[in-house]
Amino acid sequence: MKARHLVMMALGSAIGTGLFIGSGAAVRTAGPAVLLSFLVACVLLVLVMRALGEMAAADPSPGAFSTWAENAMGRTVGRTLGWLWWAQIVVVVAAEATAAAQLLTELWPVTEQWVLALVFMVVFTVINLVKVRTLGETEFWFALMKVLAVLVFLAVGVALLLGLLEVPSPGLRNLTAHGGFLPTGLTGVAAALLVVIFAFGGTELVTIAAAETEDPQHNVARAIRTILVRILVFYVGAVTVMVLVLPWNDEQLSVSPFVAVLEAAGVPGADVVMAVIIILALLSALNANIYGSSRMLYSLARRGSAPRAFADLSDRGVPRTAVVVSVVFGFAAVVLNYLWPETVLLWMLNTVGATCLVVWGLALVSQIVLRRRADRAGTVLPLRMWAFPWLSWFALALLAGIVLLGLLDDAVRVQLLLTAGLVALIALLARTLGRGRAAAQPPCPPASSASSSSSRS
Q1: Helices of type H across 108-184
Q2: Phi first, then psi: what are they for 202, rounded to 5°?
Q3: Which residues have CB under 8 Å from 309's CB, separation 6+?
Q4: CB atoms within 10 A of CB 348
């Protein structure tokens, strides 16, 4: 992949249904004070991504945070984290294919939902089997469309607030009307924070792509530096427009906040346009997550933590077996969702729902351990965490606080406990199976293979 692919993949992974739909639920939960929730969440995301960026620039690996956790804390932790993240992603792949098919069926009811889900899975499986550059180019254009959609939304919102449109401007009154700035109190801000944090899950995918990027040390550092500001602008900017344009208790915010704002601005056909954008966002995430899950499985196989066949590479440097195996689970989940739409997929999503907290927490611990080793060895790092170790510990403290808040919320508590149970099960299996001798590693990682493939393309 080229630098532009990595930057747009990083940005695209952060702009998805969490922003287009989940942000409205957060506004309804906390009112205008949701801005505080987003600011806290963005600060945490910035710190986590900076820590991940430091490790990715120093050691680009297809296993990313799983590999670094193994280097920092041992094989059992690395295995557990890798398999946990893989399990989450294959479930999310099925959910994204199903959701995109459902939305498209509502817009264009010419076939069954499961047929469209199957088509999406097949198309993006083929894209992931071709070569890395094809996948990177596809994701680049998907991400670009999402970015343009957010920019148009921000432009329309600002124009409305400045009174440049034919509809009257609401000004700043929605910040304090309808119960004040904190209509649901600090508990509402805390509850909204949980919604926002889960919406940010998946942004760590860019560190996996770093291993197949040209000049990863330079390009990863560049991507991390540029992406952080853009995420802040897009997320905080979009939510600011929402809370200024509409009353926080407007029911339309729960359905589609972007559509609600655009309709308030008098934009015709906003519902159809945003439905198409959300479908594209889901397909973009589907594409990226098939990629991420296959690379994680490939890395686990290279480290002797999965069957060695999963580490086989095609002539173009694509771990095709890992792609197929990851997608098979996605196909199976789609079938299960078709048979039991109200139970199986929902249960699986709840089980892996809090995975991002585990990934981020162990990533921060890994960064602290590996950074101290690097400092003792006098290693010069291409990208460094700010104010180390204080900001790393601060980010861990924020995560711990979020977990405690989650335990006080009935719905989130279920996710946390199910994820904890899954972590314990995977760790037990990893510990038991890890007593065997590790498989020998294949000679070439995909980074070098991808680079040679890119040079041929």
Answers
A1: 113-130, 132-161
A2: 105, -15
A3: 301, 321
A4: 21
The reported pLDDT for the residue numbered 452 is 38
- pLDDT of amino acid 183: 92
Task: Give the separation between CA 222 and CA 144, rounded to whole angstroms.
Answer: 18
Give the Cβ contact number of residue 271 at 10 Å: 17
Would you say the C-alpha torsion 448, 452, 453, 455 has a positive or negative sign?
Answer: positive
Q: Residue 277: its pLDDT value, please?
A: 87
Q: What is the pLDDT of residue 13?
A: 67
Picking from 372, 351, 303, the residue whose alpha carbon sits closest to that of residue 92 is 351
- Give the separation between CA 259 and CA 275, rounded to whole angstroms: 9
User: What is the crossing angle of helices 257-264 and 270-302, to 10°?
Assistant: 150
**Mean pLDDT, 10 residues at a time, over the chain (457 residues)?**
72 72 86 92 90 91 92 94 91 82 83 84 89 77 86 92 91 90 88 82 82 78 73 85 93 85 90 87 87 92 91 88 88 74 65 83 96 94 92 96 86 85 91 59 42 36
What is the number of H-type helices and E-type strands within the chain?
A: 20, 0
Residues in the chain: 457
294: tokens are: 């296959």
CB proximity list for 410: less than 8 A, separation 6 or greater = none
pLDDT of residue 447: 42
pTM: 0.87
Give the count of alpha carbons within 13 A of 402, CB side only.
Answer: 25
Say if CB 95 and CB 246 are below 8 A apart.
no
**Cα 375-215-380 angle, rounded to 5 deg:** 15
Query: Which domains does the chain show, CATH number per domain?
Result: 3-435 (1.20.1740.10)
Amino acid letter for position 22: G
Q: Supply the DSSP symbol for 214.
A: S
Rounded Cα gap, residues 279 and 24, in angstroms: 17
pLDDT at position 343 is 67
As a whole number of angstroms, the distance between CA 414 and CA 382 comes to 40
Tokens of 227: 């992406």
Residues 277, 262: Cα–Cα separation, whole Å: 13
How many whole angstroms separate alpha carbon 66 and alpha carbon 71? Answer: 9
Backbone angles phi, psi at 172, to 5 degrees: -110, 5
- Rounded-to-integer distance, Cα 246 and Cα 401, Å: 30
Position 344 scores a pLDDT of 64
In 3D space, the residue among 63, 123, 454, 105 whose CA is nearest the CA of residue 292 turns out to be 63
- C-alpha span between 195 and 268 (Å, rounded): 30
- Of 124, 129, 105, the closest CA to residue 116 belongs to 105
| C-alpha to C-alpha distance for 67 and 75, rounded to whole angstroms | 9
